[in-house]
Specification:
Length: 616
């Protein structure tokens, strides 16, 4: 009887390379040696290497730490090199967000089957654990598919062509959208206790990771069941490949809430290591030691596995050996979405009721008494990064006696001085229509490592990417409880707001609008915004192609008063002005067709049973 063999990569230095691979199929690697299936699938180290490969290939909308992608789907604009300015002219195409990786699913199905067939020398608990991990990864991937594409072919076994000339038996039709969500729930229910041996790990699937996937996926399913049916017209296909019956909404919300409560009763805690609420929120994403908020993360460790997010986004004048930086410029709209600690809306007050500039003693004063999460997310004027002052000043203000107001003067040279010997335009801008400097007056702080050499090309950063964290679970619980009409759903959100510096019970009556805003500020730049707007079915209204604060990125520019109004004490104080930005050329436009990405025509040609998505 012929022995079956599998290609493998030896351990040691090659294993380090394997962990940092960016998508190669483990089964397709050139062999350095040949081992039988029996040898491979009875060796825990080799099984873990295959698991590591799959973990590393887990998808997101644009991938973890994808600077350019964040500017397309979150509250920011692209301020990097001019050749990528298409990111600021986004009219989402039918294929936007498309993902259809059945090669990855095949690798997982094959791994499960190999364990079932060959792992006879492993202990039962080991074999069950490894199978459960692969099944979790498969459920995670099906969630990534369904939230982009709707119902997809549900393949749970390895498909092999028999070379008969008739491939029709391989042509699986799309499952109904709800059938994919049901599969995700059933799989995670069956495996959650089998994963208990990994409890305590933050980088491998465990009981709580499975529950976190339930919490998020079931919330998505409930939202789609409810809100898709309120659209006119609804986005559905006749066969149910797209669209979930409204009658199923509460069932999904209940599943999400149950999973969320189980996690909240588990071993996790909100990160609260620093009494300074803003610094604490920033450190949540930097501190790996004893951080009990992170449920599941993609880890990075120098020197074998690093990322370049700090290199791409550090404040301009704090660059180390960067050839370009400062790529993400957060929007004024995002900054204003962070409420004041007294509960009032976060609108920044730069002019009075008569249209006159409001003068502030310091550049940071306009942001005073804001939600602590703002500091942890955005670098704004008058603050620091790496314990060094940022130099964000657009220009100077000069009193014009004839007009009775201040004229604004900008020097195109960053770091220039005015005739009074003080700063004219800061080293960090902002500067309109320029690359590698903030165009909005804001830089991103969240995820930008302040570690030494983290922004260098040679070293780069090793802070991790959180797939699931407790902050999201509180928000999921609040939303599911609200949708179910349960008492006091605001208690979940108030817990998060207290961590951000708000007084206890700062929200006494929860609304959907408040839920949506809390997710916007808590989860900014964590790959949630685009999908949240989609599942609530408000993306076509938020990004409707007209000129609004939501579809256009605006900035807020600080100016130092260089020549003050006679008799005033305005000299060297600051005023602000809203900036319309040249590089952001067109308002974002999201159409009904964008609620589900189009399926590539090549896929349809190869499998005629595949039904196209609506409006495409």
């Amino acid at each position: 009887m012929m022995k079956k063999h599998i290609k493998i990569v030896l351990m040691g230095a090659a294993f380090a390379s394997l962990l940092s691979s960016c998508g190669d199929s483990w089964f397709e690697r050139d062999p350095q040696t040949i081992l039988t299936d029996g040898q491979v699938w009875n060796d825990p180290a080799l099984i873990k290497s295959q698991l590591a490969n799959i973990y590393n290939r887990l998808p997101q909308l644009h991938g973890d730490f994808n600077t350019g992608g964040m500017t397309e789907v979150d509250d920011a604009m692209y301020s990097g090199t001019m050749d990528q300015n298409y990111r600021n002219e986004l009219q989402y195409g039918d294929d936007y967000g498309r993902w259809w990786d059945y090669g990855l699913i095949r690798d997982i199905n094959m791994s499960i089957e190999k364990i079932e067939k060959y792992s006879t020398e492993l202990k039962d608990d080991q074999r069950s654990l490894y199978k459960a991990e692969f099944r979790f990864l498969r459920a995670f991937i099906y969630f990534e598919l369904v939230k982009r594409m709707g119902g997809v072919p549900l393949i749970t076994t390895t498909l092999e062509y028999d070379f008969s000339g008739d491939p029709s038996y391989l042509q699986n039709p799309r499952a109904k959208e709800h059938e994919i969500y049901d599969f995700i729930y059933t799989e995670t229910e069956e495996i959650k206790n089998l994963l208990a041996a990994n409890n305590g790990s933050q980088t491998r699937a465990n009981t709580y990771t499975a529950l976190a996937l339930q919490s998020r996926a079931m919330l998505y399913a409930g939202s789609i069941a409810k809100y898709n049916n309120l659209l006119t017209p609804t986005v559905v296909t006749e066969g149910g490949e797209v669209g979930i019956p409204a009658s199923m909404a509460n069932g999904y919300y209940e599943k999400s809430l149950t999973a969320s409560k189980a996690i909240l009763a588990g071993p996790y805690e909100l990160f609260n290591a620093d009494a300074d609420k803003g610094k604490n929120f920033y450190q949540l994403f930097m501190n790996k030691t004893g951080n009990k908020e992170i449920i599941f993360a993609k880890d990075y460790q120098a020197p074998t596995k690093v990322h370049r997010f700090a290199y791409d986004n550090i404040v301009r004048h704090l660059t180390e050996d960067n050839e370009s930086s400062s790529t993400i410029s957060p929007s004024l709209s995002l900054v204003e979405s962070f409420d004041y600690l007294d509960g009032s809306k976060g609108t920044l007050h730069y002019k009075d009721a008569n249209g006159n500039y409001i003068v502030y003693d310091n550049a940071s004063d306009i942001f005073a008494n804001k939600d602590g999460r703002l500091f942890g997310t955005v670098v704004y004027p008058g603050t620091q990064f790496r314990n060094m002052d940022v130099d964000i000043q657009a220009g100077v203000a000069i009193w014009n006696e004839a007009t009775g107001t201040y004229d604004l003067s900008v020097n195109p040279n960053l770091g220039s001085n005015y005739e009074d010997g003080e700063t004219w335009t800061g080293l960090d801008g902002p500067k309109d229509n320029a690359p590698d400097v903030s165009n909005t007056g804001f830089y991103i702080r969240k995820f930008v490592s302040d570690a030494s050499a983290a922004s260098t090309r040679g070293t780069s950063a090793e802070n991790w990417w959180p797939w699931f964290r407790l902050g999201e679970i509180y928000l999921n619980a609040a939303e599911a409880a609200f949708e179910l009409g349960e008492p006091n759903p605001e208690s979940y959100i108030n817990t998060l707001r207290e961590r951000a510096g708000f007084p206890a019970n700062s929200i006494d009556h929860l609304t959907m609008e408040k839920i949506q805003n809390e997710r916007r500020v808590e989860l900014a730049f964590e790959d949630h915004r685009y999908m949240d707007l989609k599942r609530w079915r408000i993306a076509d209204k938020t990004w409707d192609g007209t000129y609004t604060d939501n579809t256009i990125v605006y900035g807020l520019y600080p100016y130092r008063v260089a020549k003050a109004k006679p008799g005033s004490s305005d000299k060297d104080k600051f005023i602000f002005d809203k900036a319309t930005l040249t590089r952001f050329k067109r308002p974002r436009l999201f159409r009904l067709a964008n609620y589900y990405s189009s399926i590539d025509q090549g896929v349809i040609n190869n499998n005629p049973t595949i039904v196209k998505n609506p409006f495409q």
